Amino acid sequence: MMIKSRSRPPKTDALLEHQWQILLPFLPRGWQDAAWTMKAMIRRRAITSAEAWLRLVFAYAWNDGSLRTAAA
Hints:
Elements: H1 13-23, H2 31-37, H3 50-62, H4 67-71
């Protein structure tokens, strides 16, 4: 009997961008400003925007790996 793998197929940049555009309307108004006022963006280094930060958080939450792997 063959066991099906649960691994997800790799996603292309275009598909990820399309999915991001679908997600954006579900975020509350002012979410990018809130990232600054709630001090999520105090220590900006390689992450330069609230959008990049949120994408990293989603990648980390979705994948079963380390934050370093998600950021790569």
